[in-house]
Amino acid sequence: MTSRKMSFFEFWRSKKERGALLEAANQLRLRPSQLRRLLGNSGVRAALQNTRMASLLPPVGRDVFRRFTQGHEDEEKRESRKKNKEVLEKDRLKPASELEAGKPLPFFYGDPPPKLLNTPLEELDPYYQSQETFITLSRGNIIHRFNAEPACCLLSVSSPLRTAAIKILNHSFFSLFIVVTILINCVFMTMHDPPAWIKTAEYVFIAVYTFETIIKVMGKGFCVGHFTFLRDPWNWLDVVVISTAYLAEFVHFGKLSVLRTVPRVLKLIPLTSGLRMTVGALVQSAKRLAGIIVLMVFVLSVFAVVGMQLFMGGLKQKCIITPWSLSNLTSDSVTTPVYYDSGSEITAFDFNEFKMNKDNHYYLPGQLDALLCGNRSDAGACPEGFTCMRGGANPNYGYTNYDSFGWSLLSMFRLMTQDFWENLVMLTLRAEGRSFLIFFMLVVFPGCFCLLSLFLAVVTMTSSEWEEPSVAKAKRNQEEFRQILQALKTREEEEPNNQQAAGRTDVSEKQDGETKTSHEEEHTEESGEGRSSCPPCCSILADLFLKWNCCGCWRWLKQWLGTFVMNPFFDLVIVICLIVNIIFISMEHYPLSMEMEMHLSVAHLVFTAIFTAEMVLKLVAMDPYGYFQVSWHIFDSIIVFLSLLELALADVEGLSVLRLFYLLRVFRLARWWPSFHTYIKIIWTSLRALKNLILLLLIMVFIFTTAGMQLFQQDYKDCVCRIAQDCELPRWHMTDFFNTFLLIARIFSGQWIECMWDCMEVSGQATCLIFFMMVVVIVNLLVLNLFLTLLLASFNSDNLVGPEEKRKNDLHIAVSRVKTWILDHICTLQGKKKNVSLDHTVADSHEENKKDDLALSLLTSEQRVPIASAEVDFEVKMPENEEKEKKCDGVQKHLDIQQDADTKGHNGNTPEDCCGDKCYRCCPFLDIDTSQGGGRVWSNFRRSCFFIVRNKYFEFLIILIILLSSLALVFEDIHLPQRQVLKMVVETADQVFTYLFLLEMLLKWIGYGLKKYFTDAWCWLDFLILDVFLVCLMANMFGFSQWGAIQSLRTLRALGPLRALSRFQGSRVVVEVLVLSIPFMIDAVLVLNVIWLFFSVVGVDLFAGRFGYCFNETSEEYFLPDAVDNKSECSALIMMNMTEVRWKILKLNYDNVHNGFQSLMHLAASADLMDLRYAAVDSRQVESQPVYEANQYMSLYFIFFSISSFFSLNFLIRAIIYSLQRDKFGGKYVFLTEEQQKYSKAMNTRFLKRPQTPAPRPQNPCRACLFDLVTSVYFEVFMVVLIFLNMVPLMLEREDQSWEQEVIMFWILFFFIIIFIIEFILKIIAFGRYYFTDCWNIFDFILVICSILGVFLDDIIMHYLFTSALWPLFRLVRILRILHLSRAREIRKLLVAFMMSLPAIFNICLVFFVIMFTFSILGMFNFPYVKEGAGIDDLYNFETFWSSLTCMFMTSTSTGWLVFLLPIMNTPPDCDPWIEHPGLTVRGDCGYPLTGTIFFTTYVILTFMLVLHLYIVVVLQAFNSEDIEVLCDDDLRRFYKTWRKFDPEDSQFIQYSKLSDFCDALRDPLRIPKPNTIKLIHMDLPLFPGDKIHCVDVFVTLAAQVLDDSEKLDTLKARMEEVVTANSPKVSNEPISSTLQRKQEEVAAKVIQKAYRKHLQHGDTEETAVQSADGGGGALV
How does DSSP classify residue 92? Predict the structure, then answer.
């Protein structure tokens, strides 16, 4: 494993190059003439003899594709026996990756003859040529490999049955037939109530699957030999399908029927090669995720144990009625039955039964669970008449608790996935106290963020490596193609020089004729590529009907209209019409007046006529043949056709859905809007390029949907009363396919816990837990892979650059001309003769327009219409633009350097000028002489002020004042008017702080000058905030503080903490990066707003006026449709003086586009679509009473919006990454100051570059044995097991465990303490003084001492130091040793990368906390008196700072903020504006809808951006982290330990002949497995006398294959020499040769010996020939 060569930004910038490389590699082809010369010319083959492809090509003169015969099969056996002898001497061959089964044939083989398709052919891979296999080629030159042995010991290769089976198996229609069969079977699977004839269809499916299996077995063989039926794991699906199908005829599976359906759906995967490759890549990536998954389980387990120790049994505390005779008793004091006198009789009273009785618990209206409470001052309180005590079950059917390890682990997993986590935190804080919010803020959520960020980093790196094999293969193919062309060209140049004799003229002429013929063929092939592939009949029809070329007048009209429609101003007019049309579309609302409805109808007709006229004009000007060759024209024509159809069928009932299609005009803007064009292209390209991954995701969704329906369908029907009081099915159930699909889609959006609770209640815990965990893990992994692959794949290129960097289209040209015309007329009106210098692009636009007109005027019907300028791919960046960017960057850098040089003088001891040049010109009296008199005094005074404000202690003082002023704002809560002393202190402190800030501003004005002060954005922030404080101070002094405007202005004092951002360099860097990235995000945000506009308008059309309902406020119930059907009937009830009846409208609705945007904001930010979805599926007609799930298919609207949000988030992240990858931020350190960069480098050196020197092995035999024991792998594994077992007793603790169980737990703990003491003793004896040189050993020593003290001083520690719940947590610290003992290299690397990103995370978290603090103050100032409801209650509100901070923390993850927004949106009559608050002068409990919406929207956007950047920082650091820890201390120790096995005498040398076994015995990453002969030869090790090699040379050479840094190699070499010197004396021998030189000498000797033997044999042959000639002559004589 080598260090990563590219950082994330380098990888990001290389996407376009990789995409072009992959595209070019797929188009590599050799012409037939080139193939003939490659395969038949020995000179060309000789030139390619050293290439990799030479071994794959057949011998010269031999056909590439030859039929496989049985006789040749015997020949293969004989050849294989010969080659097996050679394999023993040489390295074993490996299969060629290009010739694997399922891959297309490499380009250098050419295309096989059609008659040889699906015919057994000889092997092309040299690896398989020695084995009994053959291949077949199907359509597309796909390779299929078969076993040559008789199938099932009966059917040989030449058997007609097997030949037919192979042809059927390879035929594309066979695969298509099986796919269609599976799809039809899937359709039948969706039937929750199948018809009677489904059994017959099942028999048909079984017959088809059986036939498929028989064909496969006949063609491939069953199990004997390679590439047989059972040797392919995917074929086991066929075995399972058939076996379960036949077994189902005799056995009833019940819930296990999923074993029949799931394998059938999975059969779709092996039928598509792309899906098989995708699944293989996902499996490989899952292996990479094993380490991080283990880490996640480990950390969550630790958090679960911590949660058990802190909150065990806490969620059972409820408000329970206190009996009048037991009012002084508590649950702790009463443990036995109590008797009391109720008058005339004495009754036994069981207090435990009383607590468990649900009737005695306090319930809030509409809640299924009792109100939780706590006995701490900051916990939830009970109403009067109720006492807080422990009793009853836990919330949410008893599944939300910390009473055991399993439930606590589920709660922590729920927190990590952030599903309904705010409810869990609210319940915990209500029962245990709000002070435990610190636990969640500082422990749980940072830990969960660490896990999620590391998981995301690993998946990101894995996704980025998906294309690496394809890119490497593409590079290799291009290199081979270049070598072939070079060899062919060289051979062509050499052939004429070889023609020397005149008698061979005819041969040369023949060769010239062949060359000429080949060139003609090449020319024919090249010319044929550009021809149209349309059939002749289609061309004739196109000439007759699609090319309108009637007469001269018609041609003149076409030319004139062509000039008109190709004019840039024509596009400008169309774009203006589109924008105006979109505005009119957005004006629809509810209720809509008749007059407004008429205006909108007329506007719709007008715009339809305009776009119809546009289509007609272009059709006439360009002919239908040319018009429909442009994709945007096809899209325009479809919209026009649908608009006209909608107008024609406007009165037909049921076709109003056609009105939605004209909304697609919004997407026409993408033709002229590059970023919008990119967004659509991302969606379209991803559907094509990632079709396999998307198809796999859909398959998994279908599998989980059918499996869920079959597993839980009957349970939901039989046990529905457990989850519904009315015994009606809830909204989320799995009784049919569609509802199960909706439930799986809800899990996609991250909401699974509530559905799982219902499932566990009706069907049992084990099955539901397994099912839901599989869905959550697999679905999230697939979606995350799809998201990151879409983000990082090379088919997308960055298009988020300014319009000036793109090729301008007609719209840009027209706008530039309009700007020029306006500037000309302005100059003319001003009477100035000013020559406006046009942009060079504008000047060129006239010429481009002329060229367009000329091209159109010369256009005839026989010519193809050129693609319009809107069809230009905006992602293409021309080289000249890149050069301009480089020049601009250079100029900008030069200007920055020059500006730094200019301001260097001002950075010294001299302040800058007080005012600007314009001020001095306007007011010359300000320019005073500072060299004498009062000017000199003023200059000295300014210099003194300058020194003061630049002093670091002054800055520390200002920071302290800011913190104190922010702390003073904390006390201005709802209770301040009742605390007069505190109120006076706060007001005085406010005045003092205001004066101090005023003094600071005056000092900076004088010291820095007004010019510099007001050119700094941070100073402007201080100035504006100080203005607010000054105005409020003056209002208090003059008695105007009660004015409404002043009261509103006072709330802005909450912005005071923002001044702290400018005082810390880290926060300044974060804010500057965010601000500078805004211009790059504006275009992306505008695109997303257009998408949201489309969905908002669709929502208005579908749901406007349909979210109202008639409600009885007294009983808090809805009227049934039978009682009240619409708003009119509800109004009739109101007119009948029924004051409790109201017609209410959902606060989040689609009555207009603005409300639609607000609803979409909620859906996109929180993924909580419950209220909106329920209202949508219950809606009927406008102003009709909703009916339960009357319109269930409206859920698809929210699913489509979720899909669009998926692409929108991807698009937004692309904009963020593009802004960060610029030169200014594209380095290795993002969001870091200079000091933090030094810290990051120091961390890099500390954790990676300086591993500790291993302890030497003792010379004492006993200590040496102990040393070998404690450093062995088995001892390490044993200790890992013990550490995990040490955690088991903590996991087994329960809330209701007995005293005997506690005693057993104590002795188990004591046993483990003894074990760890023994480990400590063994190590201290083995290592000696070196024991304390290892940090982990010191860590173990401290834990051992603490464990011993904990056993003997347990009671003292629990009573005087900390609570008993915290002491067992120290036992968990030992688990950290696993990171060291397990040798988790990848995990350590990720953790080190995370630690190196901590400074950047700290900077972002600092900004995050300041924003949360500021908004908490704002919420406390604006919404303290809001009426309780939804998420606002007595504990969670905006009355005090701590409660407000709790609410903001709940909202920080963009989930659950609606429960706080809804009460703020209350207006009369939902609230009382005149209600009095005891002890306060404030009246009313209504909210401020507009203020609340802006407040929460701003906060959610800011926190979302910061959290997003937090994940990006960790991913960047994981990408940029160097893999320097590849070789560490443990590797060196293991190397030397293995060396000692081959060198027991510690001589530092071994025989060279043992090197192969030694390298094979090593562990990764130094191991070189056998066969390793060739690799060892190329290592070129020094040879010492006796053919020996030294250990240091071997180690350094092996390390050089892992590391490529000479400095690191030198360090490792020095460390290895230290270890060797410490264990054995140094040997001073000089090398006499090297392994490579020795091998070369051996090869040379063999060549000489072979030549000498050949010479001797040649001499003997000649002598024999002479003797035979002499003998023959004698005979003749």
Answer: P
